[in-house]
């Protein structure tokens, strides 16, 4: 820590309540980074842990006056490095602001603080017969504030959409400590620019979100589940295309490639079979789910499925979905991993998976592919040995090749994880120069001194 | 026209293709305003009618250099004065850019120019078995570009959402003529700030939209229809609340109050009955619509419905919906009208309608209420005599009282029509000062010389 940083820390401790400023090296070490791999991070100067909007506002005012950069943080479960500490920064952790302030069953909405765990909100909604659909993989540990800041997805998006589709209002503290509200409690409203959507997915670069109003939907019946295995990737791709073409909308449609299926089988001994080139997992929570899954089963059979299993029992369904849940843990056993998050138009999924197989051969590196087939959003997972510079270089090169391929196929560098540190440099390859200039102009308009998550801001 | 305006017009005619600059007084008169009432407007300097993005870009470059304000315009069917010409402005009419560029059935999306009539896009989607849901009242004449610029709603929103929920990408020309793209063709994507949503609903104040990519949904079965009449407003309100509480989501749920029902009956002799205090119109296009409408019929009966009629026949359904379609034309026969567009949390609809009845008595003025009960978005229509200053003043006072009441009930000044000229001054009463300052900062960042729709910009 430099002398000026020590001075700043002293001022911070003087001006803010003593129990919200933490500079203990053991504590701050655990706030240095999120769950991403191969992204830059460092130790923050301190961690500020506010309990109220007023404390967030006071903290940002002080940090603004001191010119100290601030990185807001939820649970740190992100996969793009958007919550990684940057040089000389303070991490602002929202974990103490974890109250569900309101569940309004009549108007079907909830008001929560940013540190509420997503699964807790889902449980609270469920208790009154409603559903908060967003279900990122980290649903049991991630926070609603983090989900909003990254516009997190999950497995339900094919039917329900992403986090941002449920956010109708926010309370936000700006870089200089001013507090504002966006949006409203009504389901419709067009007064002024849509600032709610501007903050959704902005990765803490425009303000710190201190309260979130989300809409809830009627609680659906228990989902029914179908798992189909295929001997060829193109067969599974044809089944996905067939489902879309038939105008069917399941509530989940996930795909696992051969590498992932084998890794899962080696870990779990589920007996998925060596001849399986792709596994398709489908759920429906429609009122007529039985009919819907029968139509989807027919499509799978027509596309040459090796085997189709179905269940309407929740316990059995959980077993059928186990392969998807185990995808990353199973691949993790093969080595270090670097998880990608590209998305392509739905019709190009098979092209993308095929290209990833080629990239795997080209770089002599294992890549497991799983993800949200119904959204065209895949998570190719590059397996490498972090201790071996050659392997590490190959992993990064393969990762880049996959990301470029997604762009070439008319897709995006990130479907749901965000750019963060991991893909910040890629942004200029997706956005045209004018669009990028507008992004920069908006950042400058809201945070003229570039103090909010400067290492991530685009 | 002042001398400097004449000079500017000459330069414009010199620098732009001759056939896209129109200064003929008869023509420009028809581009002076939209369909709103009691909003300011004037004759524009000229109307520019570009045919391509390049012509829009060249036009804005020239106008930018000349410092001439520009008001972009679709069909001019708006109800808030957002397309009204302001002093010394040029109206940029997008009506010649009316091509449907692409309907991609496999990826379920469409790419259109801004001047495409909304009904044409719906027909083109329908031809390949898909649905473009947005259905504003003016669907047969309004343009997709205008819908995007106002984030238009309609009757389908209770199930499908508003225009912005379907827009996934835009091409936009900025104030200085630079062309940019926002969004993408994938269903998910989080690279950079959500500029698409920033332009949606921005009423031409941030840029001119020259291309729109929308997502389409599977074409639903033909809708089934139910109409229920009630002797008391609170009975109808209880039915609406009952439908929401039961977790049922029809594709349409509209309400008409006593004044509107009587006006429709006097015009159409539909025999709606003098004892009717409220009419509820419901549709479902779910696969199990019959079951859904049976549940809703039961709820209506339990809430004391006088009469319930149902039909699955499209022709009969259209007749049942006729009362809603005739609401504004029927009220129009009673005098001049001023249409409001407030929205409240769904649970407060009956409170709002009750308050409007009180306001009607207080100001001694007829107010018919109809609108989207399922969204809490109502269109109270104040009837007055424009030739009588006393009546006009009463109408404006009643209009203000209704708008204030919506805010008091936790609602918004505009659910789907936008602020435009009509409610520009109200914006500061809905937004807090910091939120308003951020709106202004964004406008300044994108259009520093305030040339795009300056009379509307907030």
Automatic annotation (TrEMBL), chains A, B:
* Ranges where the FAD-binding PCMH-type domain occurs: 40-219
**Record's keyword annotation contains NAD:** no
What Gene3D superfamilies has UniProt attached to this entry? 3.30.465.10, 3.30.70.2740, Vanillyl-alcohol Oxidase, Chain A, domain 4
Protein name as catalogued? FAD-binding protein
The record's annotation in PROSITE patterns points to:
FAD_PCMH
Which Gene Ontology MF annotations are present?
FAD binding; oxidoreductase activity
Q: Which domain of life is it from?
A: Bacteria
What are the record keywords, sorted? FAD, Flavoprotein, Oxidoreductase
Which source organism?
Nocardioides immobilis
UniProt family annotation: Belongs to the FAD-binding oxidoreductase/transferase type 4 family.
Record flagged with keyword Flavoprotein: yes
